[in-house]
C-alpha cells in the first residue's frame, strides 16, 4: 500500500467513474468524476463494510485527515462503536470546514 503524499493527491485526475485508493489501517481517498477528493475511514462491522467520511482534500489537509483516520482506527480497536460517534465526527468536520460555525458557538451559528 502506497503512503499518500500531497503531490500524489494533487495529481490524481478524475475519471468517468468514482475510484478509490487505500493507504492502510482503513484510511482511503475517493475521487469523484467531478474531481472532488474525499477522505474516508473504512472498517468492517459484523462482516459488513462501513465507511466514515472524514472530509474533503483542500478543506482539510492530508495530515489532518490521516490523524482523524488514526484516531478512528484507535477508537475502533478499543471496541468502541463508531456508529455512535458518527454525529460527533460529522459535527467536528462541519465546524472545521465552516468558518461561521468555527467562529461562534454551535447554537448561534444554526
TrEMBL record:
It comes from Pelovirga terrestris. Keywords: DNA integration. Belongs to the 'phage' integrase family. It comes from the Bacteria. Residues 4-83 form the Integrase DNA-binding domain. The keyword Hydrolase does not apply. This is DUF4102 domain-containing protein. GO terms for biological process: DNA integration. Pfam families: Arm-DNA-bind_3 (PF13356). The lineage of its organism: Bacteria, Pseudomonadati, Thermodesulfobacteriota, Desulfuromonadia, Geobacterales.
Amino acid at each position: 500500500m502506497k503512503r499518500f503524499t500531497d503531490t500524489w493527491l494533487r495529481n490524481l485526475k478524475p475519471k468517468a467513474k468514482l475510484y478509490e485508493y487505500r493507504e492502510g489501517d482503513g484510511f482511503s481517498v475517493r475521487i469523484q468524476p467531478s474531481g472532488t477528493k474525499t477522505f474516508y475511514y473504512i472498517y468492517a462491522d459484523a462482516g459488513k463494510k462501513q465507511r466514515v467520511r472524514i472530509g474533503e482534500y483542500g478543506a482539510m489537509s492530508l495530515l489532518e485527515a490521516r490523524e482523524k483516520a488514526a484516531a478512528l482506527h484507535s477508537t475502533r480497536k478499543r471496541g468502541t462503536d463508531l456508529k455512535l460517534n458518527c454525529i460527533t465526527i460529522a459535527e467536528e468536520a462541519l465546524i472545521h470546514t465552516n468558518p461561521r460555525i468555527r467562529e461562534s458557538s454551535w447554537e448561534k451559528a444554526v
